[in-house]
Design brief:
Shape: rod-shaped
Strand content: over 45%
Largest sheet: 6 strands, mixed, barrel
Number of strands: 27
Distance between the termini: 123 Å
Radius of gyration: 39 Å
Structural class: mainly beta
Order of helices and strands: HEEEEEEEEEEEEEEEEEEEEEEEEEEHE
Strand order of the largest sheet: 22-26-23-25-24-27
CATH superfamily of the largest domain: Immunoglobulins
CATH topology of the largest domain: Immunoglobulin-like
Number of domains: 3
Length: 344
């Protein structure tokens, strides 16, 4: 009789224990029973896969923001994800994955990350590691222990890797393109990202092709100064060019037109009468062969003006231009002498 009472009184205890175990949501925990040794075996966390990763662009300008969006399981809602970049081809840089941006997965499982881009490389999205929460329960006096792994500790597998290229920022801060005689010209500026040793060139367009006339390496913070001989760029359109490297794509920007002034013999006259062209330019010059309307840059070494061919002459040996009274006055010129001039 005593045994029957003990059995009957034990039933409610087992029922309560069973109810406690069933009360744990299966969506939140995965149960792992003890092994034969009586020690607990942790459950293996679930794995969420990042799906449908999209980039708003795969080629961006320096400093422009890149946006990555995607989808993963809604069970991972509230977890953190990171946008990472790796570029093992850049010398003296960090060759592992580094974090560009961090965001939180929405209830729907969607996420969006945005970060400014400064160099080319491979990008991916991966979950931020979180240690699994654990709950320990004891059943009776047998010493059996169950370990439950919280679903919040589930692993989020990294996305596929995508390649993104970044164009550098190439700027000109000053330039000297109006050259007199044998003067050397120069173009100064900077290349971003600012690193030393990157080659920048000045190119001149001649006969329909761009040709390199001079080059230089960037300094510690990306600054550059390219110097060139005036004879190599006379009258040509110029540009500054970067050929590209593992960090950035190629980039070129216009730098203007080089004007090289050479010494010529000139005289002056008063053009109050009729001109061979039928019109009077305020800054007018006469030349034997240049078409009417041709722009000519002239300088005395200090002052520079742009004059227009509106008459014919001079017909005296050795003289190239006749300056009208306005040009002569602007340049402080009188009689016959040497000035610097070039076709603009």
């Amino acid at each position: 009789m005593a045994s029957s009472r003990l059995i009957r009184s034990a039933r409610p205890v087992h029922a309560v224990a069973g109810a406690l175990v069933l009360a744990v949501p299966s969506s939140a925990f995965a149960f792992a029973s003890a092994g034969a040794s009586g020690q607990a075996t942790p459950a293996k966390p679930a794995i969420s896969q990042i799906e449908s990763l999209k980039l708003d662009s795969t080629h961006v300008a320096y400093g422009r923001k890149l946006t990555a969006t995607g989808q993963t399981s809604s069970l991972a809602a509230g977890r953190k994800v990171e946008l990472e970049l790796s570029n093992a081809n850049v010398p003296h840089s960090y060759h592992g994955w580094r974090v560009l941006a961090t965001s939180t997965i929405a209830k729907s499982g969607r996420f969006s990350l945005t970060a400014p881009m400064r160099e080319s490389g491979q990008v991916r999205v991966t979950g931020v590691p979180v240690a699994a929460a654990r709950l320990t329960t004891r059943q009776g006096t047998t010493g059996t222990t169950g370990v439950l792994a919280d679903a919040a500790g589930a692993t989020i597998a990294a996305s596929s890797v995508r390649r993104v290229t970044v164009a550098p920022e190439l700027k000109i801060t000053s330039k000297s393109l109006g050259l007199i005689g044998s003067q050397r010209g120069d173009v100064r500026g900077y290349l971003e990202p600012g690193r030393s040793g990157r080659r920048v060139t000045v190119q001149a367009r001649k006969h329909g092709r761009w040709r390199t006339v001079a080059g230089a390496r960037t300094g510690r913070y990306g600054g550059y100064t390219v110097r060139f001989a005036g004879s190599s760029v006379a009258g040509a359109a110029l540009r500054v060019s970067f050929a590209g490297d593992a960090q950035n794509t190629p980039r070129s920007i216009p730098a203007g037109t080089a004007t090289v002034l050479s010494p010529v013999l000139a005289s002056w006259y008063d053009d109050a009468g009729a001109t061979a062209s039928g019109f009077h330019a305020y800054y007018g010059v006469a030349n034997v062969t240049l078409p009417f309307g041709t722009k000519v840059t002239m300088s005395n070494g200090h002052t520079t003006i742009v004059a227009t061919v509106d008459d014919r002459g001079p017909y005296v040996g050795g003289r190239v231009y006749d300056l009208n009274q306005n040009v002569a006055q602007a340049l402080g010129f009188s009689g016959v002498g040497t000035i610097y001039a070039s076709i603009a």
